[in-house]
Amino acid sequence: MYMRNKLQRFADNTRRHNIIEPGKATYTQLKGQWRTAYFSNSHDLVVELGCGKGAYTVGLAQCFTNKNFVGVDIKGARLWVGSSYAMAHQLHRVAFLRTKIEQLDQCFAPREISELYIPFPDPRPRDRDEKRRLTSPRFLALYRRLLQPGGFIHFKTDNDALFAYTLAVLCAQPIKDLVYTENLYQSEWLPAHYGIQTDYERHFLSQGITIKYLRFAFAIAP
Ligand SMILES: C[S@@+](CC[C@H](N)C(=O)[O-])C[C@H]1O[C@@H](n2cnc3c(N)ncnc32)[C@H](O)[C@@H]1O
To answer: Do 136 and 214 belong together in one domain?
Structure first.
């Protein structure tokens, strides 16, 4: 089942209910309506950004039966893996959205998201790519509009420079409840990850690289 090539995965995605992507009616219809029109419940909506194969989306869905989960990525072939897993394990409170994170506000309404996870985003080390980092001020402004007041953002990385950059950016933001560790696996925050490891995380751990983690909420709603 997991051995389909890229074109076969794209074709599968067009037929799958749990893949929301451009060209489908759901892509334009769910903004502000995820709970009522897609999940048919009033549970919290947890979103994983740059989810790849959706490790947090499906992992958290198996831990929390009273929340809804949406994994977001631009790469449909990776989303297909999470989508396949969700179908095989009957995870009905899981969906995958293929879109650019820059355009997140086309698919979610202000305050619609309860919590955000950003596991192992691309570090974008070049200065000229700073605004493409998922923790740059312009992305944080976007998240702030879409998150409900007090909603946490969780961020995990192997990359020292991106972690230092993110902490520096947060210093200038109206945030609260910040916790952080430069070695998640030696910290009190490890249980908050429920044993979930992404592909990138496993790769970095196998190389002996420490995993950095931080979590915060915005202090003031926009
Ligand atoms: C380094 S990978 C990490 C994947 C996964 N989180 C993991 O830890 O295994 C970064 C992911 O973010 C996605 N991505 C990067 N920038 C994006 C953007 N602006 N919009 C949507 N997806 C993006 C990429 O397609 C890729 O799957």
So the answer is: yes
Band (pLDDT 50/70/90 cuts) for residue 2 is low
Would you say the CB of residue 205 lies under 6 angstroms from ligand 1?
no
CA-nearest of 193, 198, 215 to 51 is 198
* Per-residue pLDDT at 221: 72
Pocket probe for ligand 1: among 51, 118, 204, the residue whose CB has the most ligand atoms within 8 Å is: 51
The domain boundary, picked from 100, 124, 143, lies at 100
Catalytic residue among 73, 122, 127, 158: 122
- The residue among 25 and 1 whose pLDDT is bigger is 25
Read off the pLDDT of each residue in 207-211 and give the average, rounded to a whole number. Answer: 97
User: Is the same domain home to 155 and 215?
Assistant: yes
Residue 158 Cα to ligand 1 midpoint, Å, equals 14
Residue 108 forms part of a structural domain: no
Last residue of a domain, one of 100, 129, 146: 100
Is 122 an active-site residue?
yes
pLDDT, residue 220, reads 78
CATH code, domain with 212? 3.40.50.150
**DSSP states of 110-135:** TT-BSEEEEES-----SGGGGGGSTT
Per-residue pLDDT, averaged over 174-184, amounts to 97
At residue 49, φ and ψ (nearest 5 deg) are -100, 140
Range(s) of the domain holding residue 3: 1-100
CA distance 212 to 61: 23
